[in-house]
Amino acid sequence: MNKFYLLLFALLFTSSVFAQSEKGYVYLKNGTILKGKYQFVEDSGKWRVESAGNIWVFDSAEIDSVVGSHAMRMIEMKTLPQDSRLFYRAEMGVLAGNSRNSQSAPFSVTGTVNYLITPQFSAGAGFGVDYYKESYLPAFLNVEYKVRNSWSTPYFFVKVGCQIPIEDSRELYYDVWPVWSSVLPQPVYNYGTLDPKGGILVNPGIGYTHLFSPGFGMSFGLGYQFHRLHYKGEKDYGLDIDYNRLTIKLGFLFN
After folding, report:
1. H/E element holding 246?
2. Residues 47-70: pLDDT tens digits?
3. Could you list the residue range(s) of the whole structural domain that residue 6 is in?
4. Which residues form the signal peptide (predicted)?
C-alpha cells in the first residue's frame, strides 16, 4: 500500500511538472539550440529542458534566450545572468523647479558607470552637463538598489557629489553681500558679475528599468535634486543660490 501511494505521488508530481512546461526553442550561449519542452524552476534558478528523449538541466547563465509560447513571461521570471557586473547608464532630461534660474526646466545629460556588488545592489560614479545660468559639470557617486533581480524592475538611486562650473557667468546678480559679514553693521548690498565656484549636489529618486536583451535596456527616473551654487566677487563679496529641482530623465542601459 505504501508503494502505491509513493507511485501515485510520483505520477502526480511528474504530471504537474510537465503541465507547467512549455514547448519551444532554447538557445544556449555555446551555440547549441534545443527543441522541446522547457521549464524554469524558480527554487533552484535552473532551466529543465526535455529534447529528443533526453533531459538536461542548465543554469540561467548558460541560457541566451528562449523562444516559444509564454516565453517572454518565463524569461522575466528567471534571474538575470551575471556574466558582466559592469553596466553603463546614460540619461537625459530636465530639472524642473524654482524660478531663480532664467530657465524653468534646464536640460541635463548624465552618464554613470556602475558595478554590481550583489545581483540587486550596485555602486558607481558619473558625470554630465547641466545647463543653468552657466553650464556645470556634475560629478557624483551613484548608488542603486533594484527591487527584484529580473529583466523588468523598479529601482531606487542616490547621487551625491558636486557641481563644477565649466564656463564664466553670463548673468548680473543682485543682493550680493560680503560672505564674511554676519554681525552689525548690516552689510552693504551690491550687484555685479560674479565668478561661479560650483557647489554640492544631492539627488535621491526612484525609477523603472526594463531590459530588452542581456546587453541593452531603458529606464525612466524621477527624483529630487538639491544643489547649492556659490559665486564669488571682488572684496570678499559672494552669493549662494540654493536650487530644489524635480529630475525627470529617460535612460539607456548598456552591459
Report:
1. strand 237-254
2. 888 887 888 888 877 887 777 654
3. 2-77
4. 1-19
Claim to verify: residue 60 and residue 14 sit in the same structural domain: yes
CA distance 231 to 233: 7
Peptide bond preceding 106 in cis form (omega within 30 of 0): no
Cβ within 8 Å of residue 15, ≥6 positions away: none
Q: How many whole angstroms from its chain centre is CA 218?
A: 9
CA separation for the pair 127, 100 (Å, rounded): 24
C-alpha 200/C-alpha 107 separation (Å) is 19
The total of structural domains in the chain comes to 2
Can you read off the three cell numbers belonging to residue 46? 535552473
- Sign of the C-alpha dihedral computed for residues 129, 132, 135 and 136 taken in this order: negative
Domain end: 43, 77, 111, which one? Answer: 77
Closest CA to 111 of 133, 135, 87: 87
DSSP 234: G
Rounded to 5°, angle at Cα 62 from 84 and 86: 5
Based on the domain organization, do 248 and 224 belong to the same domain?
yes
Q: Which three cell numbers stand for residue 76?
A: 522575466
pLDDT at position 205 is 97
Q: Exposed, middle or buried, 56 (CB in 10 Å: 0-12/13-18/19+)? A: middle
Same domain as 143, residue 72: no
pTM of the predicted model, to two decimals?
0.61
User: How many Cα atoms sit within 13 Å of 126 on the Cβ side?
Assistant: 25
Give the position of cell 552618464: 111
Q: Looking at the chain, how many residues does it have?
A: 255
